[in-house]
Specification:
Helix content: 40-55%
Largest sheet: 5 strands, antiparallel
Number of helices: 6
Oligomer: single chain
Number of strands: 5
Strand order of the largest sheet: 2-1-5-4-3
Number of domains: 2
Distance between the termini: 27 Å
Shape: globular
Radius of gyration: 23 Å
CATH topology of the largest domain: Beta-Lactamase
CATH superfamily of the largest domain: Dynein light chain 2a, cytoplasmic
Strand content: 15-25%
Length: 204
């Protein structure tokens, strides 16, 4: 990442950024002008978009300077932020005492959006299988006329706890967290408390 060049870009102001004598490299989008010495949120968004477009061009991903280029950069930023959010949540889940594996799963498709740990079995298969569990439980609740949200589903094995936390927030609807705990090492009550706190912060 070329920090020094971007720092110089950020120090430019309106007329400097528009000066034809400082034209950008061929194929790269022109750095947008900053309206004042104190950049607002719009200025920052333009700067971030320009950075992403510059890096994409440098890595050979095509010309983002044409029509739709800024929109593509913005989409990439949003996807990157979503992925970072899921990865951060996954690391917090694996930091729970006794955790051996965790996944954040779309129960509609059965696909794990993020997974990690080493629970001694295939988390991808477990994610798909537990999606069936969640869908079946939600269907049963609808048939019974139960309108409560599911906090979590606990499956107790001889050596493990499997916790399923269905995410009910608007930004994470359709997802659940699957957490595998070593029964001998975990504090179940504390794990459920921490899981609930992490689940409340996830948004896609």
């Amino acid at each position: 990442m070329r920090v020094s060049s971007r720092s110089q870009w950020w120090r430019r102001h309106g007329s400097d950024a528009d000066d034809s004598s400082s034209a950008p490299a061929v194929g790269l989008p022109k750095a947008p002008a900053i309206s004042s010495a104190e950049p607002d949120e719009r200025d920052l968004a333009q700067f971030v978009e320009w950075i992403w477009a510059e890096d994409a061009q440098a890595s050979g991903e095509g010309d983002l300077g044409g029509e739709g280029g800024v929109g593509d950069a913005r989409t990439t930023i949003e996807e990157h932020n979503n992925m970072s959010s899921l990865d951060d949540a996954l690391q917090q889940l694996l930091a729970i005492e006794g955790a051996t594996g965790a996944a954040i799963v779309d129960y509609g498709s059965g696909m794990a959006l993020a997974q990690g740990g080493n629970p001694s079995f295939d988390l991808g298969i477990a994610a798909a299988g537990n999606s069936n569990v969640v869908r079946a439980k939600l269907a049963t609740m609808r048939d019974l006329g139960v309108t409560d949200d599911i906090d979590d589903i606990l499956i107790t094995l001889s050596s493990q706890y499997h916790l399923i936390n269905v995410l009910n927030a608007t930004g994470a609807n359709g997802l659940f967290i699957y957490l595998v705990l070593n029964r001998a090492a975990a504090n179940l009550a504390l794990a459920r408390h921490k899981l609930k706190g992490i689940a409340a912060l996830i948004e896609v």
